[in-house]
Amino acid sequence: MNRAIFLPAAAMVALTFAVWLRMYSSRVGEMRRKRIHPQAVATSAQMAARLEDTRAADNFRNLFELPVLFYLALVVAALTAQVDTVVLALAWLFVALRIVHSAIHCSYNKVMHRFQAYLAGSVALWALWGVLAAGLLRG
């Protein structure tokens, strides 16, 4: 089994951890500054009503949407011996574009810039699945 396919997964986990740290830091910081008791933000509705900066939390949730299909694609590639230059390139492209997406989302958050990174990453992911599906059909 070509273990190189799992390096992009490790990079995505590292990105998810970095966004989690950013979310934790910004959320706790805002709660301390505004003296918000943790119980006052026990639900997502209460959180949205009381906290102003939800960028990192919103991005953290995004990292459990399309990336789920990414992680599965890597497992499929490994289990079906389809790890090659094209698959690895598409996997790393997806990771790079998710990093760009997260950087935009957690900082200046211009929607059209974020959307362009999201769309490009999505295309890379769909292309990855296309390559894998073609390989599966060829047997």
Q: What does this entry look like structurally?
A:
The longest helix has 28 residues, at 6-33. The chain has a single domain, classed as Membrane associated eicosanoid/glutathione metabolism-like domain (Four Helix Bundle (Hemerythrin (Met), subunit A)), CATH 1.20.120. The model has no long low-confidence stretch (mean pLDDT 96). It has 139 residues and is an all-alpha fold. It has helices at residues 6-33, 44-50, 55-62, 66-79, 85-106, 111-138. Helix 1 (6-33) packs antiparallel against helix 3, helix 4 packs parallel to helix 6 and helix 5 (85-106) runs antiparallel to helix 6 (111-138). The relative contact order is 0.15. It contains 6 helices and no strands. The chain crosses the membrane at residues 6-25, 68-95, 115-137. Its main location: membrane. Keywords: Membrane, Transmembrane, Transmembrane helix. Pfam families: MAPEG (PF01124). It is found in: Membrane.
CATH architecture: Up-down Bundle
Quote the beta fraction. under 5%
Question: What's the main sheet like?
Answer: none
Class of secondary structure makeup: mainly alpha
Count of DSSP strands: 0
Instruction: Point out poorly predicted stretches.
Output: none
Give the termini separation: 17 Å
CATH topology: Four Helix Bundle (Hemerythrin (Met), subunit A)
Number of domains: 1
What's the shape?
Answer: elongated
Q: What is the helical fraction, as a range of percent?
A: over 70%
- CATH superfamily assignment? Membrane associated eicosanoid/glutathione metabolism-like domain
Mean pLDDT: 96
